[in-house]
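Record ABC transporter ATP-binding protein, 300 aa.
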Amino acid sequence: MQLRAEHVSKAFGPVAAVTDVTLTIGHGITGLLGPNGAGKTTFLSLVLGLQRPDAGELQVLGLRPEEAGPHIRARLGYGPEHDAFPPDVGAEDFVRHLARLHGLPPRDAAGRAAEALRWTGLGEEVRRPLGTLSTGQRQRVMLAQAVVHDPELVLLDEPTSGLDPLQRDEMLDLIRRVGTDLGRDVVLSSHLLHEVERVADGVVILDEGRVVAEHRLDGGHAEHDELLLEVEGPVDALVPHLREAGLRVTGEGSSRLLVTAADDTAVDAVRDALADCGVGIRRLERVPVGLQELYAEAAG
Ligand SMILES: Nc1ncnc2c1ncn2[C@@H]1O[C@H](COP(=O)(O)OP(=O)(O)OP(=O)(O)O)[C@@H](O)[C@H]1O
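=>
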């Protein structure tokens, strides 16, 4: 596990930016999805150890950011939402400088900077002053500096903001390749559902500082799955049994029921109910809920 938060809260004066957040982030690409002001940037700043939580426990790469901020930051890559690039410095010089700050020796830093920038698809532009680069090119520099020191986990805060649709697609491909080419885990903050759906293996949805849903997108266990149940014969006796077991049931009156699973014991509960009623089973399978439905549900 790369990151674990338990009941983490952070307020700025009267503004509760992050409230009672409990989540775990494992390997792969995890989307941190939520509208503007949901607390994504604040959460990332707690992970980086740049802010201290008011309450709760955070563990990042097995360490507590409050105590081990510099150690954690050495092992993380970070692309903030807004860059603060020095306009007169060349892209390659800048990324090399950051690699040096991360502790790489001069020759390694130069090699790694050139390699990281090439990997993002930048060409001759790497020698141009940062102030002359387009938004798309700047975002590539942002990504290059986030991976230059070969971090274990890469945090990217709204890395596609300001990009046109084509540039956005290219950036999402690169983010996907942080996992496939570089073998690194990523937390991708975004307010765009389709973006997260396209590249992430899992998603945590935040709204007004709270976690409103966690969902796996890679076919793994999903908390909010629905089960499609087809039985032999009438279901009238079965439905109350399912409800008693705490399941939500729709489709009464037919032999096909949609059973909403609150957790992964639902399959067992369905089997028990079937056995109790002596009803035969024809089909039982998971129907993964689309992220769209989940987001809509989360947004109330
Ligand atoms: N330093 C701060 N001082 C006061 N309020 C803050 C500060 N940082 C964040 N906030 C407030 O905390 C809430 C969460 O903000 P945050 O930037 O974490 O959200 P976000 O999901 O990253 O949104 P965005 O994508 O718009 O940045 C907002 O209401 C914001 O105004």
